[in-house]
């Protein structure tokens, strides 16, 4: 029989994370007079998706394995306008007194084989229970709208081809990831030019 998993602490952690990130982003906007965020999305991974992840690793679906092998049950994605915003948001989270960064994965500097780019933070979020504080793992993904566009289409394609993506399709995706990288660079420089105009007004 499949073990029933208690999701309460993951739900508490998601609420804590959403609130903390919301406050940090509002503070950033006030201090810099600029809101870098296009949108924020959060979710608790579905039981089905957790089961699939464990199955891929030949592991049984139980509380201990979820805790040890599925670090992104709690997930939050911050989508920003420009490349430089990604690193500003990473610094903002780094300076948080509540969220602890456990691991950083810079898939912008080192893209995945698929072409996927994004900045991932594996973090610990405190939850305040009746008698003690517990830390719950969560994954924060930070990426530009261009990277988000690519990842979203890639995700849809992977869903259509759960086994193997046809080679011409995966090659095209890799190439488009390069196009996205170039476009992000162009937008970054365009933003710099705009800022210079504003400073000289
Ligand atoms: P979902 O549905 O988004 O939750 P590892 O290499 O084992 O350390 P792992 O397990 O791949 O790392 O974790 P990593 O690198 O932190 O990436 C996990 C998440 O990043 C994925 O979660 C996706 O959200 C996203 N991701 C990673 N690679 C790709 C990719 O090639 N395409 C797209 N579209 N997204 C990607 P899940 O659980 O796979 O999916």
- The CATH class is identified as Alpha Beta
CATH fold-level assignment = Beta Polymerase, domain 2
Query: How much of the polypeptide forms β-strand, as a percent range?
Result: 15-25%
CATH superfamily: Beta Polymerase, domain 2
Order of strands side by side in the largest beta sheet? 1-2-5-4-3
- Calculate the terminal CA-CA distance, rounded to whole Å: 69 Å
Over the alpha carbons, how many angstroms does the gyration radius reach? 19 Å
Helix content: 40-55%
Segments where pLDDT lies below 50 for 5+ residues?
Answer: none
Tell me the layout of helices and strands.
Blueprint: H1 8-32, E1 37-44, H2 47-56, H3 63-69, E2 74-80, H4 83-94, E3 100-106, E4 119-128, E5 133-144, H5 145-160, H6 167-199
Helix pairs in contact: 5-6
The structure holds ligand 0O2.
Question: Would you write up a description of this structure?
Answer:
This protein is of the alpha+beta class and 201 residues long. The chain has one domain (8-199): Beta Polymerase, domain 2 (2-Layer Sandwich). The protein has 6 helices and 5 strands. The chain has helices at 8-32, 47-56, 63-69, 83-94, 145-160, 167-199; strands at residues 37-44, 74-80, 100-106, 119-128, 133-144. Strands 1-2-5-4-3 form a 5-stranded mixed beta sheet. A hairpin with a 4-residue loop joins β4 (119-128) and β5 (133-144). The longest helix is centred in the C-terminal third of the chain and has 33 residues, at 167-199. The radius of gyration is 19 Å and the shape is flat. The model has no long low-confidence stretch (mean pLDDT 95). Residues 45, 49, 53, 72, 105, 112, 114, 116, 120, 151, 154-155 line the site of ligand 0O2.
């Amino acid at each position: 029989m499949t073990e029933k998993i208690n999701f309460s602490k993951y739900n508490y952690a998601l609420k804590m994370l959403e609130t903390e990130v919301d406050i940090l982003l509002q503070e950033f906007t006030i201090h810099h007079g600029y809101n870098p965020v296009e949108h924020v999305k959060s979710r608790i991974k579905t039981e089905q998706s957790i089961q699939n992840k464990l199955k891929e690793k030949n592991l049984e679906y139980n509380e201990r394995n979820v805790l040890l092998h599925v670090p992104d049950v709690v997930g939050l994605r911050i989508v920003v306008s420009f490349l430089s915003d990604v690193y500003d948001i990473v610094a903002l989270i780094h300076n948080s007194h509540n969220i602890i960064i456990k691991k950083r994965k810079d898939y912008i500097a080192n893209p995945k084989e698929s072409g996927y780019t994004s900045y991932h933070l594996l973090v610990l979020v405190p939850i305040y229970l009746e008698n003690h504080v517990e830390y719950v793992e969560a994954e924060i993904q930070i990426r530009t709208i261009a990277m988000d566009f690519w990842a979203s289409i890639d995700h849809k394609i992977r869903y259509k081809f759960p086994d193997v993506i046809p080679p011409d399709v995966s090659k095209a995706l890799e190439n488009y990831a390069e196009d996205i990288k170039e476009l992000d660079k162009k937008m970054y420089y365009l933003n710099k030019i705009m800022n210079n105009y504003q400073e000289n007004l």
